[in-house]
């Protein structure tokens, strides 16, 4: 499992903003503003987290994809002792 610090930052951000179901998610643009990362980097990280089963795509916000934290991601943060 190849998880970077930025991956954890993104997952903690989703958890902090209660993005834990299909309806409640954050767009790439919203995540970029907080993490101060570029669009390609943010997109690559989110797709990787989706492939690993930590994050999934939620419902659309106008035309933008949203992303939310799955139970596997929540469990990883809690197992690592992360308090958000």
TrEMBL record:
Record-linked InterPro entries: HTH_ArsR_DNA-bd_dom, WH-like_DNA-bd_sf, WH_DNA-bd_sf
Gene3D superfamilies referenced in this protein's UniProt entry, alphabetically: Winged helix-like DNA-binding domain superfamily/Winged helix DNA-binding domain
Domain HTH arsR-type: 26-57
Superkingdom as given in the UniProt entry: Bacteria
Pfam families in alphabetical order: HTH_5
Any one GO MF annotation of this record: DNA binding
GO biological process: one example: regulation of DNA-templated transcription
Protein name listed in UniProt: ArsR family transcriptional regulator
């Amino acid at each position: 499992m190849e998880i970077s610090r930025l991956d954890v930052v993104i997952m903690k951000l989703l958890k902090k903003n209660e993005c834990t179901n299909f309806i409640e998610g954050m767009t790439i643009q919203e995540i970029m503003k907080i993490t101060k990362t570029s669009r390609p980097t943010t997109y690559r990280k989110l797709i990787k987290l989706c492939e690993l089963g930590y994050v999934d795509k939620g419902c659309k916000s106008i035309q933008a994809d949203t992303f939310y934290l799955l139970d596997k991601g929540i469990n990883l943060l809690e197992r690592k002792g992360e308090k958000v």
